[in-house]
Amino acid sequence: MLNSMNYTYHMYIIWEALHSYREECLPEDQEKYDEEWNDITNSMSWIATGLRLTDKEIFDYDPIIDH
What we know:
Blueprint: H1 7-25, H2 31-50, H3 55-59
Helix pairs in contact: 1-2
């Protein structure tokens, strides 16, 4: 369930959607799409830094455990 203060969960949800986008919408081995993906991941990293979250906190997050 969404909670406005659970930033780790928010980042987890966005990353899940972005990984699906990467797999389904961005062809591999095409430089222009690699650049787009790099821009997305850098932006997400900067947002996480601004929220004082580490990659480990986000990628190890388990929404099943955190009810």
